[in-house]
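[job 4417] fold queue: 2 targets
>>> target A
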Amino acid sequence: MLYQMLLNEADRQNVAVYENSMGSKIKGLYGDNIIWLNRGLASKTEKTCVLAEEMGHYYTTYGNILNQKKIVNVKQEKRARNWAYEKLMPLEMFTKAFEASVSNRYELAEFLGITEAFLEKGIGHYKEKFGLYTEWDDYLIYFDPLGVIKLFDG
C-alpha cells in the first residue's frame, strides 16, 4: 500500500519509476525526474523504503551528488533520507502504533510497512531533530528508549 502510494505520488510529480538490475551495491538512483530501483531488492518493504528515499532526492536535492566525499553532497543525501523517514514514519504513526498495542520494534516496523533497518535510522533522525522525546498531540514519544506515553486530559 505504501509502495503504491509513493508510485502514485511520483506519477503526480511526473517522475518516472523503473526497475532494473543494478548490481548488489546500488539500491536506487534518482536523476532528471527518473527513479531507478534495483530489481534485486529483497522485498516490497525494502523497495518502499528505497523509493521513499529516491522521492526525497526529487524533493530535496539538486545536481550530481554521487561523490559522497564532498560534504555538500553528504548533506543532500542526508536531507533526502530525512524526508523519507518523515514520509514513511510520521510522528502520528508512533501514537497509532501505541493505540494498536504494538509492543516492540519488529512489530512497529511491520505496522509502519518499513524495514527494521529503516526504522532504526528513522528513530536516529528523530533523536537528532528532537532529542530524547517530543510531544505530539496528547502523547510523549520517546526515542531512547523507544516508547509512547499518553498524557492525561486535563
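>>> target B
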Amino acid sequence: MLDSRNIDDLHPAVARGCRELIARMNRAGFSAVGVSSTLRDHAMQEHLFAQGRTRPGNIVTNARGGQSWHNWAVAFDIFQNIRGQEWNNPRFFETAGEIWEEMGGEWGGRWVNFPDRPHFQYTFGVTLAQFQAGHIVPPDAKMPWESREEMEKLIYRTVKEMPEWAQAGIQELIDMRVLSGRGPDNLDIDENMMRILLIVRNMFDKAGLLEKMR
C-alpha cells in the first residue's frame, strides 16, 4: 500500500503549489510546516476507509479507493511540525487555507459535511468521475497563482511587443511625450501599468483634455 509524503509524487503543478504554500506560510510566521500525505493508492484508501468501520479507531475518511483526490495526485495534507501541536492550532490551518485559496486552490476546512482542515487540493476542474474514467491532466498544466505571477513578470519594452489593443493608445502617449520610460525602445512597462496608463488616457480623452495636450 502506498501513502506517500513526497511532494514530488503530486502532479507537477500541485507540487509547485504545495512548495509555494509552505514558502508563504514561512513568510506569514509559520516556519514548521510538515506534509503528512500526498499520493495514496486505492488499496491504502480502502484501508483508511475501513478504520472506524471494520477496523478499530475513529473514522478518518468517507472516501473509498478511487474516491479520494489523494488517489489522483492532486491533494495533500499538512500539519504543524511541532511536537504536541501537530493538529490543534486553528490559526495555523486557517492561515494556510486562506493562502491556498488566494492561490486558486480548494481547502478542506471549508467543507460543510466533513470539514478537513489539514487537506488541500487543486483538481484542475476535473471531476472524480472523469479521473476514474481515465482523464489525465497534462503535466504542463498550471495553477491560477502561477499564471498571475507570469503576467506580473511580463515586461513590455517596445510598443510592438504589446497586445494589439494597447499599441495605439501607448504610442499616442509616447508621441505626446507623456510617456518615455528610458526611451521608446526601452519602456519597461508591465501588464498592470499598461492598463493603468490606458485608463488614464481614456479619462483625459472623455474630459476633453487629451486634445489640448496634442
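[job 4417] complete. Note on B: The chain has a mean pLDDT of 89.
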